[in-house]
Amino acid sequence: MRTAEVFDLWAPQLGGWRIALACQDGQESVRIPWNRVDAVFIGGSDNFKCGPHTERIIKTAKLFGKWVHIGRVNHAFRFEHFLRLGADSIDGTGIARYTHMREAIGNRHQQIALGLTCE
Fold it and tell me: Which of 31, 56, 58, 115 has the most C-beta neighbours closer than 10 Å?
């Protein structure tokens, strides 16, 4: 609930920026303002991230054309799980351990859409 309150406080002040909502434990009882977000960040505990509510969040986000980022994915099985669900980006220290995870990230066509440069 506090995340939603802080979102409501700061979102209007970030006009012109793309806005993401951090979804975490407790999100099950809080409505996501889909018309006010460009992305969802899936954080929280492993139980939350791998649970049915998060799967519904990801599916709904993709239906609305929203970016989905999953944080702290440190196991190859979970990496594959989130790719199958349609995650656009994933982070975690486990990526350094698994070559196939790095290759999958390197080959994702969405990476270009981020518009990031190393300059």
Answer: 58
